[in-house]
Request: fold
Amino acid sequence: MNLRNIFFLAFSFLLFMFACEDKVDPHYEILFEPTELQFGKVEANQIISQKVRIKNTDNSTGAFTGEINIMDSPKFTMDFNGVLTLQKNESKEIYITFRPSSVESYTAKLTVSNEESFAEMYINGEGVSPVSFTCSPNVLEFGMVEEGGYKDMDLSVTNNADSGFDLEIDFSVSSSEFSFVDGVTSHIIQPGKSQVIPMRYSPTTTSVTKQLIINHNSSVKTNPMKVTLSGIMDKTTDIISAISDGWDAFENSDYSGSSSQFQIAVNFANTHEFYDSLNAEATVGRGWASSFERNYYGGYYDFSTSLDKFNAAISDNTRLDALAGKAIAGRLVNEYGNSINAAIDLLSRKADYQFSHKTSVDYKDVRMSLIQSYYNTGMFTEAATQMDLLDPANAPHSTDPSLLLAAIQALSGSL
Reply:
């Protein structure tokens, strides 16, 4: 072979080699940030989104054109549609949304691909139940507490075992009379666990009712929730003292001073039904003071109120005093029917009744009120029968209205 042919073959081989070196297969390096997308716990039927960055790195042979897909679970969706095109070192941000429909774990893959390349990123999330909790009790009634003292009660909060999250909860109350014993107003409670919230009542007013405000992270409970707090400053000693002073003044014929003391007791007692028994006695005392000041209407009203309003709480002795007062005052204000009923009730309970705070008033005055009420309503036979009981020495008494009236007047003047 001559030199020319050898040179030609060598040159052709070199051209072939250079041509082969220029022809390079395309390849791509696609990276995800983050490398795995974790949504963690998400309440069932709620929505949460996270950002993903997709990058075509400098190691790729050129621009990337391909598709983005989410595979394996329809509970994950994205905000991108169409063809993805990325130059070298270019990136694209997309948002992945997770919406679990039930309480279970979900997994999927985000894929970026074309004919020469395939890249994927794992996605996972868990559908869970909402936070559900209970408070017990729903009312904290501290009752009566002496001024300067305090009382503690516990509120228990339980995060239910099937809650998907920790319960995040905080408390507030717009009253200085209620406070948190340990000073802690915020708590995080795990599912299935309970937290005791110690509350303290320190009275500064006669009575108070406030709402404990409970803010929380539950989507299935009213937010905020409220628990009623109530307390009463114990005025029992003050009420008893005012009643005692009222009776002392009454027995000393200071009816105006007596009425004032009973009024003080009534004002204290009106703050709560706990004081109803004392309220009844103070009201009856005020009724007797009014009656001896010749304010018969005021007396009749107080006697009636004590029997009607405080009937379940009134003591036996106070009931007798109220019935006696209603019988006597009722006749004086022309409430004859009510006077008759009160007198019969009293005399059936205690036939020899005597008013302990004014012994000059007794069953004879009550029976005379009964007689006069019978007479004034035209019930002359009944009036005569009662006259026989009150004045047996002159029995039987006539039912003739004129003769009966004369007998009544003569007897009433001697009582």
About this structure: The radius of gyration is 47 Å. The chain has a mean pLDDT of 93.
